[in-house]
Amino acid sequence: MKNIINKKRIPVSKPSLIGSEKDYVLECMDSTWISSNGKYIELFEKKFAEYIGVKHAISCCNGTTALHVALLALGIGPGDEIIIPTLTYVATANAVKYTGAVPVFADSELDTWNIDPEKIEPLITEKTKAIIAVPLYGHPCDMDPIITIAKKHGLFLIEDAAEALGTKYKNKYCGSIANISTFSFYGNKTITTGEGGMVVTDDDSMAAKLRLLKGQGMDPQRRYWFPVIGYNYRMTNIEAAIGFGQLENINLFLEKRRLIAEWYFKCLKGIRGVSLPIEKDYAVHSYWMYSILIEEEFGISRDELMEQLEKYGIETRPVFYPMHIMPVYKEDSQELRNAEEIAAKGINLPTFYELEKEDVEYVAGVLKELCR
Fold first, then answer.
1. Is 266 a catalytic residue?
2. Count of structural domains, the chain
3. pTM exceeds cut of 0.70
4. 8 A C-beta contact, residue 146 and residue 120
5. Which of 189, 209, 214, 256 is catalytic?
6. Closest CA to 316 of 343, 344, 346, 339
7. What is the residue range of 171's domain?
C-alpha cells in the first residue's frame, strides 16, 4: 500500500447544516413553541408539498411512522397482503406488520436493484391490497408497469421514497406518482430534521385521515374528543424548523450529489471487479448513496474489502439484507436470487454534501490498490 497516503477519516454520510437551520431553531426556542405546534410545522409541510408537486404533505416523527400511518389511512389491516421488494430497509416490512397485514416479498431487477415489475403479478392473491414500491438508494422504480398492475387488480400503490427525495421518474418527482408516498429525514438523508418523516398525497380525504391518525386521533374541531384510535406520530416545531432550512438548499444538495457521482464514475471506471450503478433513460438518480457491486474478479470479498477500507479511514455500509432471509421474516421456501446476489456484493461508498473530489480520488485509489 505504499502508493496510498493515509488521511482524515471519511464517514459514509453526515448531515450538512449550511443554511438558516440554527436561526430558525433559535426562533423556536425564543418563542417557546418547541413541541408539535408552531409556525414551522405548517411552513415545512407547505414548502415540501410544493417541491414534490402534491396537494398535501403531513409531517411525522420519522419515516417508519409515516409509512405506518399511510397504510392505516388506506385501511390496511389484519389479513391483508402487501407486496413489497425483499431488498429494502426493514422499516418497509415492519410498517406492514404493525397494521397486522402480511408483507409478501418480490425479487429485484439486477440492474436497478428495485422491485421487478414482472415478479409482482404472480404474487397477487384475493388478499392482496397494495403494492409498495421502494426507489432504492435514489434510483426510481419503473413505475408505469407497476401502476398498470395496480389498476388492473384494484390495488393501492404506495411509494416508500425514504431514500429518493429529488429522484424523478419520467420528469415526475418520486412522491407525486403513487396514491400515497412517504419520506424520511433521518440524519443521513439528503435533507434531515434529525429524525422525521413526511406523508404526501393529492387526496383531500386521505390527508384528513392522516392528520387525524398521527395526532392521537383527536377531532380537529373538538379538542380532547377522540373518534378513532390514533398515534402520537407528530413532528416537533424544532425539527420542522431544521427541515425548512434544509429544504431551502435542496437543489444545492442534489446538484452536489450528482457531481459526486460523476467523480466516482470517472475514478472507478475500469477497476476490475467493480460494477457501477446505472441510470435508466426514464430516471433522474438522486444518488442518496453511491453504491457499487464487488464482483468475484475483484479478488477479495465485499466484507473483506469493507474491513480493509475501514483501516484506511473510509467508512462504508453493506447494501441491505433481503427481508426474506431475516429471522423475523424468513421463509425457507423462498429463493429470491437477484436480491440475494445484490445484497451479497453491494457496498455503499461515502456520499454527502461536503465530500470533495480529493476524497473520492482517495477512495478510488484505495480500491485500486486492494484489487487483486
1. no
2. 2
3. yes
4. yes
5. 189
6. 346
7. 21-247
